[in-house]
């Protein structure tokens, strides 16, 4: 009996710790749709780390209910953070992205992918008031928008985009994502070919 307990107790403790880590620290996520291609595929399994800091270009999971009018209750979206709280976001007439006046190379996707869906947005008067589906965004966030089409990210919010710009519905459609909706930061294994693009991309 003592022999059995000597190995059973550590195994049980280890199992409880593993379960605790999974539900308190890590969240298993199944990527749904093509909005993060080519870097994350439809039905790809990843984890979201609840305690990881959100940086520019972090790939995050957030609860989209109340953000996107089309989202189901507790439906999770996976997108890339482009703008942090206080950042100014601007697209040029040619579809180039600027954050705080600095051009963003976005080398994790091709030049075509960078501009897909953004030039059209600009020609249609791109800003987060005209693009968002909710009619109360302008009052809710008091967006600073002028002739240069600059969108300032409010406090405790993020501006997110999908890597597959031509199909992604993101902050260009539903506006900013409140920090309170954050589930975690996506991480993939270091052995994956896309680990730098997902885990630690820098412009």
TrEMBL record:
Its EC number is 3.4.21.89. Residues 6-191 form the Peptidase S26 domain. Pfam families: Peptidase_S26. It is a single-pass type II membrane protein. Keywords: Hydrolase, Membrane, Protease, Transmembrane, Transmembrane helix. It comes from the Bacteria. One of its GO terms (biological process) is signal peptide processing. The keyword Transmembrane helix applies. InterPro entries: LexA/Signal_pep-like_sf, Pept_S26A_signal_pept_1, Pept_S26A_signal_pept_1_CS, Pept_S26A_signal_pept_1_Lys-AS, Peptidase_S26. This is Signal peptidase I. NCBIfam families: sigpep_I_bact. Coiled coil: none annotated. Belongs to the peptidase S26 family.
């Amino acid at each position: 009996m003592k022999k059995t307990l000597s190995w059973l107790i550590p195994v049980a403790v280890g199992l409880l710790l593993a379960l605790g880590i999974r539900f308190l620290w890590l969240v298993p996520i199944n990527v749904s749709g093509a909005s993060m291609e080519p870097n994350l595929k439809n039905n790809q399994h990843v984890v979201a780390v609840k305690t990881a800091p959100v940086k520019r270009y972090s790939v995050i999971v957030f609860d989209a209910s109340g953000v996107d009018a089309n989202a189901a209750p507790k439906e999770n979206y996976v997108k890339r953070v482009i703008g942090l709280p206080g950042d100014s976001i601007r697209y040029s007439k040619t579809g180039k992205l600027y954050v705080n006046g600095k051009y963003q190379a976005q080398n994790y996707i091709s030049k075509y992918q960078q501009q897909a869906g953004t030039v059209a947005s600009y020609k249609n008067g791109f800003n987060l008031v005209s693009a968002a589906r909710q009619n109360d965004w302008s009052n809710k966030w008091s967006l600073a928008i002028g002739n240069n089409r600059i969108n300032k990210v409010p406090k405790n919010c993020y501006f997110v985009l999908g890597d597959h710009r031509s199909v992604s519905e993101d902050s260009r459609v539903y506006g900013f994502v409140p920090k309170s909706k954050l589930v975690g930061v996506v991480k993939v294994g270091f052995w994956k070919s896309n680990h730098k693009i997902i885990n630690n991309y820098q412009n």
